[in-house]
Design a protein that fits this description.
By secondary structure, the chain is an alpha/beta fold. It has a single domain, classed as P-loop containing nucleotide triphosphate hydrolases (Rossmann fold). It is globular, with a radius of gyration of 17 Å. The chain is built from 11 helices and 7 strands. The protein has a 7-stranded parallel beta sheet, with helices on both faces. 46% of the residues lie in helices and 16% in strands. 40% of the residues are buried. Strand 2, helix 2 and strand 3 form a beta-alpha-beta unit.
């Protein structure tokens, strides 16, 4: 089953784009046929730093009807195996409105896709509340991946999430998958941003400091088994003619 993967968040700054960068790195390494969209038109960081990586990233405001029409047309016409979209933070109501207006789940099924909603957690309630609203709206029409962003876990853990009814609904009733995103040192991440490099391109050959290279390599090594836990939902197990 092909996948449409939407990266959501109850607010900005949880690490949505950082996670999608990981996913794109893995999709490229597996030679998966994908389309990537940056729907965060206010802060299109994914587009700015990954537009020339792999098959690139397209800017698209999914919350505007005309742009959403373009999205569905491109997906139908190009028929990639995986579609990934980085959504803006705190736009749950508008996202649900567009999903309902176009009948996303039916369109996806008609085109041979299953939708995955990815939520990247920090330690606050708004992200959990936003996910709960999406679960109430989407139910079992989609699959769920919840990412604990460990850069927020300073010995406090994700107790609010772990104690929530939303976790029970997602991971038990709806068979969602919970994974972790390892922490990458802030200064190293900033160097990546300053040089406009994908994670996998952070090498000495590209002028990346060796110490930072080691930290990125360790980050990727820790992330791969976590991505593997949700490989089916994230489109990483699709066998394509382009895969080597």
């Amino acid at each position: 089953m092909k996948r449409i993967v939407m990266i959501l968040g109850g607010k900005g700054g949880t690490g949505k784009t950082a996670f999608l960068r990981l996913l794109l790195d893995q999709l490229v390494s597996l030679s998966v046929n994908y389309l990537a969209y940056d729907a965060d038109t206010e802060n299109p960081n994914l587009y700015e730093y990954y537009k020339e990586f792999g098959t690139g990233v397209r800017l698209l405001n999914f919350l505007e009807v005309a742009e959403a029409k373009r999205f569905f047309t491109e997906v139908k016409t190009e028929s990639p195996d995986v579609v990934v979209m980085d959504m803006p933070g705190a736009v749950g109501n508008k996202t649900r409105e567009i999903i309902k207006r176009f009948g996303l789940f039916k369109i996806a099924a008609d085109l041979g896709y299953r939708v995955t909603l990815v939520t990247v957690l920090n330690l606050d309630y708004p992200v959990i509340n936003s996910l709960r609203a999406m679960v109430e709206f989407c139910g079992d029409s989609v699959d769920y991946v919840v990412v604990k962003n460990l850069c927020w876990d300073k010995g406090l853990g994700f107790r609010r999430w772990d104690d929530s009814k939303t976790k029970v609904a997602v991971t038990t009733e709806l068979k969602g998958i919970e994974i972790e995103m390892p922490e990458l040192e802030y200064s190293t991440f900033d160097t990546l941003i300053e040089q406009g490099l994908p994670y996998s391109a952070a090498t000495e050959e590209n002028g990346f400091p060796y110490g930072d290279y080691l930290l990125v390599s360790g980050f990727l090594d820790q992330a791969k088994p976590e991505l593997e836990k949700a490989a089916e939902y994230l489109g990483l197990k699709i066998k394509t003619s382009r895969a080597k």
